[in-house]
User: Fold this.
Amino acid sequence: MSIERTFTLPEFGYEVTFGKFAGQADGSAWLKQGGTVILSTIVSAPAKEFPGFFPLTVDYREQFAAAGKIPGGYLKREGKSSDREVLTGRLIDRAIRPLFPYSYFDQVQVLSTVYSVDQESMLQPLALLAASLALTSSRIPILSPVGACEIARVEGKWIFNPTYKQSLASDARVLVAGDDEGILMVESCVNEVEEKTLVDLFFTAHETIKKQVAWQKEIQKELAVEKSTISDPYKWDLWSSNAEEFLTKEAVDTLFTQDKLERSSAFAKLEADFFEKHNAQVEELKTPRSFLAFIFDVALKAKITDRVFERNQRLDLRDSEKVRTITSEVGLLPFNHGSSLFKRGRTQALTSVTLGSGQDEKRIENLRDEETESPFMLHYNFPAFSVGEVKPNRGPSRRDIGHGALAASAIIHMLPDRETSPYTIRIVTDILESDGSSSMATVCGSTLALMNAGIKIRSMVSGVAMGLLKSSEGKFLVVTDIAGAEDAFGLMDFKVAGTENGVTAIQMDIKNKGGLPRELFIQALEQARRGRLFILGEMRKTITEPAAELSPLVPRFVTFRVPTDKIGAIIGSGGKIIKEIIEKTGTSIDIEDDGLVKIFGQPGEKLNQAVKWVELLSGKIIVNEIYNGKIKRHADFGMFVELAPGFDGLVHISMFPREAQNRISEIYKIGEDVLVRVLEYDTMSGKVRLKIVDKK
Assistant:
């Protein structure tokens, strides 16, 4: 039975307990910060057969009970993982994956669950730290603990380790993870920040990370957990030597071609020849074909990297900074509000933009807040045909959600404010063909489609995927616009999106335990800036400004403000009045707490009527103005005319000709439409005196 141990790191308010919870897991950590509690567990199991990859699964879940809530919906229990949970799981995965030994292939499952949450702690870095602590307490042979630091910019000031409320008030957020030697992962959504500032932030955050890692290493010593040794049942060194011997320069050079399909065929032939040559040895040693394929791939990546340095030429014959050929067009989908087709090399993104009302906003059940609404959505789809595969469509994958979130974070700060453009915006990108960096193609295609739709974005945004190669001699090479084949064998895979003025989003994964020097970060980001600006120039060949007018297919918004003390009169008891206006005019109406009214509908008489009615209910009544009305009821002293649902004016009997005064109910039938002129409006009582101009 495990002995219960508790450790603290007062500087950050951390308290972690081992040996008390989840005793049958291989490792667990009960991490507290303030009133927030996260339990991370680690379980491993030997793979039944060689998997061909490291089978690491990382999940993150938030219990609604953690905030004293019961989930919405009919089931009243947590369902499938939310996008936020998926994205947090991916963050943890990207930070810890590089720290497992390259030859370790046991199944590993990491689960971080939020069991209590306060209004101060940031959950993503805390969940990552909890996962690292759980690994630290286990026998799983991870190379080093990891730490995380979040950064937020609030009113122009950068805050390290912000509170939750500070992060909500920020216009830029950066999450950095790493070990004590270097930075391993960066995720950011920022508002046109220059590259040098970002590098400074990364390395300042790393000072916090080093303190967290040092604390974990002390815990590791105290716990005295002996790490498992890695078995070698398939003779790694033997097959590595066989693969390296087989992969001569001449053999590797057959892969250097511009065409992806030719390269794929050459790779398949090279692998088949290797298998055929060693078939007898495979049979003798009973070596799994999946292991052979893995070793061959590892050796090939190293050989290709060295040949790139020797030839001064990449696999597709480009130099290190060359961006593949870019073409684009807009407006190719006639009945969409906006559309684009962006193509770079053999990656092709078809994007559509749809504009809706406030009723179309995405409603999100948040752990700490009441239900929130998002007026901007970006959905990314990666169908199997884009890479020539047969695969069932099971809905968005974790990768789809991650790529969509990255593209959304690149664009969100460039959207116009809600008063200028009150539309709910949904972007959908389908990747029709893929050869690397489809997420950055999504950024470019989304920018073009938004402009085609007439959305007045602040600046055009483009994105580029970058890579970093390291030769066997220790030389580095930063490469721009990596293709699919290059994505797998670099030390760093990072995507940078931004405008002419600065970066808007970064997603960076460093597959090198020791991290990278500051100078290399600066060089890589500067080279990415040049690539980004080149792509922006190519995009401007298609469109330079947002369309002057929205598509005629787009319903129109009318926005104006009303006095806040009139909101109740517009809505009516139980929403009766506003529902009647919506029903009679076929519009959608949203009223914010500050009095901002947004009326959404097809241009024409119905939309104008809705605007007029809301203005009347808000007290905007102009003396001598003529209004459309409906006869509501008769009285001994005159007749009441409805100017808007729930709002009547009086036509006094003295306003009728003498001969008609005794026949008002005969001449003016209830329900008839009439034109009336406003004679007097009492702002204190809200009473309106009218005179009939004519029957309609």
Remarks:
- The radius of gyration is 32 Å.
- The chain is about 30% helix and 30% strand.
- Residues 5-190+204-223 form a domain with the Ribosomal Protein S5; domain 2 fold (CATH 3.30.230.70).
